[in-house]
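Workshop exercise sheet. Pairs work together: one partner reads the sequence aloud, the other fills in the structure field after running the prediction. Swap roles for the next sheet.
Pair: D.N. / O.F.
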Amino acid sequence: MGKGIVYDQLTRMIDTVPVWDMQGNKLHEIKLPEKIMPISSKRVGLAESGLYYKGAGSIYQCHFVNESEKELKLLSKTGIIYEQYKVCYPKLVGRHGIFDFPHQAVFSDMEGGCGRKEKNLLKMQKKFELSAIEEIVNVIPIGINEHNIYVYRLKNIKSELSDVIKLIEYILSNNFNTAWDKNLWNDIYGYQYVRDVADWFISDKLCHKLGTVYALLHSLYNDDIYQYTMLLKLVLGVHNCDKHFILYYSALIVYKYNPSLFSGMDNDVEEVTPQLYAELLRLLFSGKACCHLENEKKWEWVRAHYITRISRYVKVFERRLLSYLF
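Structure field:
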């Protein structure tokens, strides 16, 4: 055999999580009750026992800011108004641990850690029956303000794409919601269960229900357009792979399960028009984006920003709609 990497060397197991400052100095370290393997691009580690340790550090690659500093390397512009730049501290890239700066500008969670917002996991786990978590077995304080490691076991399930319908029915019937721009599909386990319910909240408002279904369809479209079209067929009996109609089909799905919520609409949801699309956009943007999940008041201005862009979105949609009529 050649001198390639031996299989066992690829399984990196650790039982301590270092805490770093932005200069690369180790502030302290957290001792874990068992060894875990860090999961790439996540702030989660998997133990041989089968338990997951969320908030137990990440392998640092980048974070997101609205103002860049000279120590930071600019990787790209995001196009997202509330977290404009993807950046990194070059000397920290590849290190594992928790870092004393936020991963995103809109949340207080330290890079690799679980902060104030994640405390909602404990409350929602008791309420949200389709949580992918079977049991939260431990909460480990780490010595950083309002930060903990959450130790849990996932459910053992068998599922198929049609099970997404059960999830949709459940969240719409029980008023569970999340942010309209969340990568929700990436958080769905076994087509029916949600891995992280900390980003969910309860509301019976149409704007929030529309935003939640939109988050599901939009993120599924970006991840797997084939499964997206199959899901539309299963739920609505239609085939369409044009991304400009994701919002419209989101509205139709909400309408299917909560028709009474549309009684105050100015436009008939079953008749697709540019006027309806503009009304749906106003509803969507009046709901919650990811930036509103922890500090809604601070990021209220983001709603106004998106609403000012409605007319340009409608013009694009109108052109797409005309292409189907001729």
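Discussion prompt: Confidence is low (pLDDT under 50) at residues 1-10. What would you look at next?
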